[in-house]
Amino acid sequence: MKGKSINNALASTCKLVILRRLYSNYFQNSTISIIRNLQDIPTIFKPIKSIRKYSSFRRINNSASNPCRSQFPLYILTDKNINRCPGPYYAVDTTCYYSTHRSSDSFSDSTFLTRKLEDARLDFDNEIMTTAPPAASCEKILVQLGEAKRFAVESMKAVGTQEDHAIALAELLVTADYRGHFSHGLNRLPMYVRDIESGICKSDCEPTILKETVSTAWVDGNNLLGPVVGMFAMNLAIKKAKATGVGWISCKNSNHFGIAGYYTIMAAHEGLIGMAFTNTSPLQVPTRAKKTILGTNPIAMTAPAKGDDYFCLDMATSTAAVGKVEYHDRQGIPIPKCWGVNKDGLETQNPKEVLQGGGLLPLGGMEKTGGYKGSGLAMMVEIFCGILAGSTYGPNIRKWMNTEKVADLGQCFVALNPEMFAPNFVDRMSDLMAINRNLQPIEGEKEVLVAGDPERKHMIKCDKDNGIRYHPNLFDAMTQLGERLKIKNLQKSS
Ligand SMILES: NC(=O)c1ccc[n+]([C@@H]2O[C@H](COP(=O)([O-])OP(=O)(O)OC[C@H]3O[C@@H](n4cnc5c(N)ncnc54)[C@H](O)[C@@H]3O)[C@@H](O)[C@H]2O)c1
User: Fold this and answer.
1) 2.40.50.100, 3.30.250.10, 1.10.1530.10, 2.70.70.10: which CATH number matches 130-201+444-494?
2) Predicted model pTM
3) Whose CA is nearest to atom 25 of ligand 1?
4) Selecting from 3.40.190.10, 2.40.50.150, 3.30.1370.60, 3.40.50.10420, what CATH number does the domain 205-319+361-425 have?
5) Are strands 246-254 and 273-278 parallel, antiparallel or unpaired?
6) I want to staple 268 with a disulfide (CB 3.0 to 4.6 A). Which of 238, 302, 367, 426 is the partner?
7) Under DSSP, is residue 45 helix (H, G, I), strand (E, B) or coil?
């Protein structure tokens, strides 16, 4: 790496840069350095072996698509061999702090960084980091749903994914964004791309049925993409429920399947009640324990109502997702109570303690606030998934973001035909939801919602806008992915 070329690449006004290397969207193994003089960059990074992989710095805030960044120059440290070591990599310019932190040279822990990122009004949206001013002044980029799907399909095909598998994944990811769950949408596309690229996840066959009755099936996901396994299994459950009243499918050897609600809505579209569950990497401590042995193990249940209305409860069984804790850590702000514990199993509001040897609390928090109920629900999910399916379970599941061994997740998909029970199910569903929605809201709130309503509101907004509004950082991350994969970039809606 040559200091001169770096200097040339960087604007002369840049006095202080914080560089942070991100692996898989997370901050593990990150390297943070404060650089006062740009010519010092090679010296500061010299002892870091991996820096040899990097070749240049590129200013990325000058894109017209990204007006919110014009105030704060942003540089990206690009990788010479990006194919083997994909990003994202971000470099954050904190020129605005130069005066207060001019004595700092380099740091190896993140305390300093998070403090200043908070000052920098870091806006962390959907697990993408930005130095943008507050979101209100940051214009989101409109992308049509079809275009987002096209991009996801082409990205997956570029690394050798079978077309129908790529389509299944694209449907799932774009639906997550459309429903407002951006953390599980295109934001996760690089993760799935890497899974196929590295060969740790397959795309060369279909799931197989290992054992079957009229209403049940045990499925081998054959280490295929989670949505491929999930859609196969829910379609099978729907078929069985239509024939017998219920379809209960248990899958082993699957991968991350995204938003659980996607599969349950498939059932609701057929007039059925749908349920979906998956086990996940251990991040959650059971009540009274110090050690994480269960994942955020989501539960989804959708029940059809009149017209195209439905109730859709789709939630993790931990109080908060790990991404939310990481977000607070990056901002250097405390997490709310009930979210996590430290390494001694004691409740903490310090996100760092949760991430470094602690764990997520189950839904409800500690024992005194009913956390044992969330703990029991997470265990129930594990029983329906890992235990019933014979997949890896509990603490044996690979660590979050570890892709060195196959995931072998257990998943469960259920469809139930309400017509096999009392008549007029949808009428009573609509009545119950109307009773709930028509309740007088508490002061400061406009309305009372039922599960599924926040997502419905987001979809209505997208329909009105004729597309999904993405954070500029997400858009940039997709541009980088598109360039790396040599496919047509994600196009803004004109
Ligand atoms: N695949 C995985 O490994 C995995 C793991 C965890 C979570 N997830 C997914 O992440 C997504 C987000 O999970 P989450 O727990 O953060 O969801 P969340 O907390 O945003 O919402 C949970 C549920 O509460 C409902 N809800 C929200 N506000 C409400 C209100 N005011 N009144 C009534 N209902 C309300 C929502 O409609 C939703 O059904 C889900 O789609 C979930 O499936 C996936």
Assistant:
1) 1.10.1530.10
2) 0.77
3) 451
4) 3.30.1370.60
5) unpaired
6) 302
7) helix
